Amino acid sequence: MHQSSQFTSLETDMTPLNIVILAAGKGTRMYSEKPKVLHALAGKPLVQHVLDCAVELKPRQICVVYGHGGEAVPKAMQQYAAKFVIQEPQLGTGHAVQQAMPHFADDSQTMVLYGDVPLIQHSTLHQMQQAGSGLVLLTVNLKNSTGYGRIVRNAQGDVLSIVEEKDATAEQREIQEVNTGILLAPTNKLRGWLAKLQNNNSQGEYYLTDIVSVAVQQGVAVHTVQPAHEWEIHGINSKAQLAVLERTWQLVEAGRLLVHGVTLADPARIDVRGKLSCGRDVEIDVGCIFEGDVTLGNNVRVGAYSVIKNSTIAAGTDIAPYSHIDSSEVGANCHIGPYARLRPGTRLRDEVHIGNFVEVKNSEIAANSKANHLSYIGDSTVGSRVNIGAGTITCNYDGANKHRTIIEDDVFIGSDTQLVAPVTVGKGATIGAGSTITRNTPEGELTLSRSKQVTLAGWKRPIKKK
Ligand code: UD1
Ligand code: MG
């Protein structure tokens, strides 16, 4: 007996897996032109969370059943190797799964997921795969089970059926164990069960849940698995539910960071919309947003209300409040901000200072250089130990094309300088304040382009005419 059950679970593991993601619902209560499953949680469309989780299970085939919003869903998710099947009209969850079945071969298992249940976790689905052959239902016990299908069991505790709220008796409505909708079944059996569905219920729909009693009648074992966290099975029907689940998820992310030793000024005031990796002794102040892939090295400090996207910040760097960093690499022990903006293609080496209202784009700045106030550095290569005075601007754009500015090591650029690219400032050169530099400047020399200061003795300001 023991041996044979071991064999069964091994066999279950080896069986190819299909995943169908139901995403045809209109989402009436979102009050939006956009299909419900394309609304974002943690910066990513709901259905994409489910697709990412599905892909992790290495299925043979993924099939997304979509309905409303024209081709918006297949278009938005075209990077996935999934089949997109339209369900028109939408006659219920059972009917929706039926649309996918022609794409699934009999020698497989089929798992049903939902495009509007975004936070289902790989570990829970893996547990379902381990639960044994037969029909596996993901269920959960809720204090308030209103709205859900109830799991009906016999005295021995075996599952008999699922009854929808609208079709349930008063007694059945007391049941706290509910159907999450997520299930796993042998494909050939599922095909047969679906073919038997009828819509003679209170909603006139083909209920996927009706396959349970059919399976029981056929003597197929029905197993149940419960998710590790209740939030995994929460579905989204309104902006209010979306907002609540977003906060739930952000607290989960914050909790993970805290467990890894990250200091968060307030775990309720951080947003991670992607993957944030942190070294040791990282400190993050309130209101920060991390998007895409962000890596913070040891001892990095991120000041309040900073937004960091697809960037790497090396150890010891201090980012002062209200800084925006996008697709940039920041070296070790740099000082950034407050109010700094690093745009895509910025590469700062170690100990660089970028101060308030300084914008850097597609530029490399070598070690120990500083631009502390009110500057634009675009399409530039800046050497080491360079000081860029307040208000310095690289004029990188001639109205048609972009040109590069090269500032070599040990240069000092006086305040309010315009560097009209393409232009090179030679090593060790000094540029006088207020200059407009249009030609290359020699190494080690002072170059300036401002006109001589004059005083017009006795000059009077104009006076207003009566
Ligand atoms: C369903 C379950 C219920 C379960 C609950 C969990 C059925 C009959 N009932 O009820 O037992 O407790 O989910 O949330 O399955 N969909 C389609 N095409 C359709 C109908 C639905 O793609 O024709 C999709 C919807 O977009 C949605 C999901 O299936 O993502 C669930 O449909 P919904 O009508 O909300 O089912 P519930 O009444 O919530
Ligand atoms: Mg629902």
3D structure, described in words:
With 466 residues, this protein is an alpha/beta fold. The protein contains nine helices and 37 strands. The protein folds into two domains: 4-233, Spore Coat Polysaccharide Biosynthesis Protein SpsA, Chain A, CATH 3.90.550; 239-447, 3 Solenoid (UDP N-Acetylglucosamine Acyltransferase, domain 1). The longest helix has 21 residues, at 239-259. It binds uridine-diphosphate-N-acetylglucosamine and magnesium ion (MG). Magnesium ion is lined by residues 235, 237.
Number of distinct beta strands: 37
Low-confidence stretches: 1-12
Question: How far apart lie the N and C ends?
Answer: 110 Å
Note the total helix count: 9
CATH secondary-structure class of the largest domain: Alpha Beta
CATH topology of the largest domain: Spore Coat Polysaccharide Biosynthesis Protein SpsA, Chain A
Show the helix and strand layout.
Layout: H1 2-14, E1 17-23, E2 40-41, E3 44-45, H2 46-56, E4 61-66, H3 72-76, E5 83-86, H4 93-100, E6 109-114, H5 122-130, E7 135-141, E8 150-153, E9 159-163, H6 170-173, E10 177-186, H7 187-195, H8 211-217, E11 222-225, H9 239-259, E12 263-264, E13 270-278, E14 283-284, E15 288-296, E16 301-302, E17 307-309, E18 312-313, E19 318-319, E20 324-326, E21 329-330, E22 335-336, E23 341-342, E24 347-348, E25 353-361, E26 364-365, E27 370-378, E28 380-382, E29 387-388, E30 393-395, E31 405-407, E32 412-413, E33 418-420, E34 423-425, E35 430-431, E36 436-437, E37 446-447
Parallel strand pairs: 1-4, 1-6, 4-5, 7-11, 12-14, 13-15, 14-16, 15-17, 15-18, 16-19, 17-20, 18-21, 19-22, 20-23, 21-24, 22-25, 23-25, 24-26, 25-27, 26-28, 27-29, 28-31, 29-32, 30-33, 31-34, 32-35, 33-36, 35-37
Antiparallel strand pairs: 2-3, 6-10, 7-10, 8-9
The structure holds uridine-diphosphate-N-acetylglucosamine (UD1) and magnesium ion.
